[in-house]
Amino acid sequence: MSSTVYLNGEYVPYAEAKIPVEDRAFLFADGIYEVVRVYGGRPFDLEPHLERLARSARELRLPAPDTGELIRVTHELIQRNGLGEGTVYYQVTRGVHAPRAHAFPAGAVEPTVLVLTHALPPEALAENERRRHEGVTGITVPEQRWARCDIKSVSLLPNVLAKQQAAEQGAYEALFVRDGFVIEGSSSNLFAVIDGAIVTYPACNNILNGIARQRVIRDARKLGYTVREQGIPLEALTRCQELFVTSTTAEVMPLVAVDGRAIGDGKVGPVVRALQEAYRAATRA
Ligand code: PDD
Questions:
Q1: Ligand 1 pocket: which of 248, 252, 279 to mutate (most atoms within 8 A of CB)
Q2: Which residue in 88, 108, 86 sits closest to 97, CA to CA?
Q3: How do residues 166-196 score in pLDDT, each as one tens digit?
Q4: Domain region containing 265
Q5: Which residue among 36, 54, 119, 209 is buried most deeply as judged by most CB within 10 Å?
Q6: Which residues line ligand 1 (CB under 6 A)?
Q7: Which residues are catalytic?
Q8: What is the pTM of this model?
Q9: Per-residue pLDDT, 107
Q10: Do residues 115 and 162 both lie within one domain?
Q11: Predicted confidence (pLDDT) per residue in 200-226, tens digit
Q12: Closest C-alpha to 44, from 247, 217, 209
């Protein structure tokens, strides 16, 4: 929990940061968000995250967030909260709308803009490191989301239910299956190594085009791997050599079993190790 929060232009103590009960994000999940990882007090890939926030805003016809201001706020909060290892969370909503009505408010309504930080305690960092070293497990679940998964909206109920199902089955991630293809995780993008090539679902309306995903694709190509942006058929999970998910917080996370069946030889493979190393090098640069 951070001590200082940015809310609508002001820095306020966490306990005093209050959102009105008729904020449209509370009533309709009418808002967007971003999560940025901070390494050693420095935000990682901040610009692409804020560009995606601006894109999400455009797609939902929300007022454009002030990117320059959000960059300043990010650095200010990191400093005020003494954040070394952690995350910065950004949320923009369509503002307060009373009485409740589905259509946008008629007049100009100020958006609600919230930025807060979370420190990652050493135990959490160590646990993630252990997972990246040993690998984790996944389950598959049917796609139940809407047709605009490319927008990073706070409307996340199918993701929440899928992740909960994974948690209840002792798995790390739930992978959405759409039209016979495993497309992405509940909070991560999915990659498979099939016949030596790296395969990941194309960036389109069906998935969130992850910032970590884009970085890993660039790294993989630099390392000389072939990357194909195409669907991973569900049955390919039984014959792929490696499987992994990426996200801002998970980085490059190997999956060693899905639905109780081992991936490859059930051990973390060389492609994952090379991509983990490249990612780690970038976070240290
Ligand atoms: N989730 N796909 C989905 C559905 C996600 O929610 C996320 C990230 C990703 C990976 O995106 P990125 O590489 O930009 O983090 C893919 C964030 C971390 C979250 O909801 O907390």
A1: 248
A2: 108
A3: 999 999 999 999 999 999 999 999 999 999 9
A4: 127-284
A5: 36
A6: 35, 159, 184, 187-189, 208, 210-213, 246-249
A7: 152
A8: 0.97
A9: 83
A10: no
A11: 999 999 999 999 999 999 999 999 999
A12: 247
Buried/exposed code over 75-113 (b: 16+ C-beta within 10 A; e: otherwise): eebbeebebeebbbbbbbbbbbbeeeeeeeeeeeeebbb
Residue having the nearest C-alpha atom to atom 5 of ligand 1? 187
pLDDT at residue 2 greater than cutoff 60? no
Pairing of strands 136-142, 42-43: unpaired
Residues 227 and 132 placed together within one structural domain of the fold: yes
Mutate which of 45, 153, 187, 215 for ligand 1? The one with the most ligand atoms within 8 Å of its CB, which is 187
Please tell me the distance from the alpha carbon of residue 276 to that of residue 281, in angstroms, as a whole number: 8
The pLDDT of residue 66 is: 97
**What is the pLDDT at residue 271?**
98
Domain edge (last residue) among 74, 96, 120: 120
**Whether 67 and 24 share a structural domain:** yes
Per residue in 62-110, pLDDT (tens digit) is: 999 999 999 999 999 999 999 999 999 999 999 998 999 999 998 888 9
Alpha carbon nearest to ligand 1 atom 16, residue:
188
- Residue 212 CA: nearest ligand 1 atom is 13
Express each pLDDT in 3-38 by its tens digit.
899 999 999 999 999 999 999 999 999 999 999 999
Q: Are 31 and 97 in contact (CB under 8 A)?
A: no
Where residue 275 sits, what CATH number does that domain have?
3.20.10.10
Instruction: Count up the domains in the chain and report the number.
Output: 2
Choose one of 120, 149, 175: the last residue of a domain.
Answer: 120
| Residue in 90, 206, 208 to alter for ligand 1 test, most ligand atoms within 8 A of Cβ | 208
**Which CATH number covers residue 103?**
3.30.470.10
